[in-house]
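Handoff note, outgoing to incoming analyst
You'll be picking up this chain. Sequence as last confirmed:
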Amino acid sequence: MNVPTRVLIVEDDVATRIGLETILSAESDIEVVGHATTGLEGCRLVEDLAPHVVLMDIQLPELDGIEATRRITAGDASEPRARVIVLTTYDSEEYVFRSLRAGASGFLLKRTRAEELVDAVRVVAAGDALPMARSTQRLIEGFASAQGSSGEWAGVQALTERESEVLTLVARGYSNDEIARHLHLSPETVKTHVKHVYTKLGSRDRAQAVIAAYESGLVSPGTPPA
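Most recent structure output, in case you need it:
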C-alpha cells in the first residue's frame, strides 16, 4: 500500500487555507497533516509532523515564507527534507527568484487551478522540481547574473569537466533528453551526472542548479536557449 503524500499548509488567510485543504483532502493519495499561520510555526511543525511537501505563503507574520523556506530546506541536499512549493497572490519576478534561491521546488500563484495544484504536489513529492517555463528561466538568468559572483557556490569548482558541461546545458534550458543528445550520452548517464551536480552544489532542484551556474560565473547572461 502506497503511503499518502503528507502536506503541511502554511497560510495565514483562513479562507485560502480551507480552500487548499479542501482541494487536497479530496485526493486519496494526499493527506493534509496540519496547518500553520506563521512562518515560525510552520518551521516548528515541519519538525513535528515530517511532511513531504509544504505549501508556503510568502506574506506571513513573524517570519516570511521565503526565510521559512530557507530554514526548512537547509542542510545536506541528500537528507530527506520537506520540499516547499511557494504560493502567493503576487506575480512578482523578484518573489519567484528569491523563493527558488531559498530552496523552493516550485512557485504557484494562489489562483492556480485545483488540478494544477494537485499535480504540483505530486511532482514535488516524487522528488522533482516543477517544470520551469522559459520565462522563469529568463528571470533566473537576469536576477542571478545581477547578484554577481557568489562564493556560496564553491561546489562549482569541484565539478568534473563533464559535470560542468551538463550544468551549463541545464542552465541554458536543455532538458535531460536534450543534454543526452547534445553530448551523445544515454539519458541514464545524464541523470547520474545531474544528480552528482546537485550533490556537489548542495542544491535540491534544477532551479537552484541554474542559479548556481549564473552566480558562480560558469554561465554568462545572454546564453542562447535550447
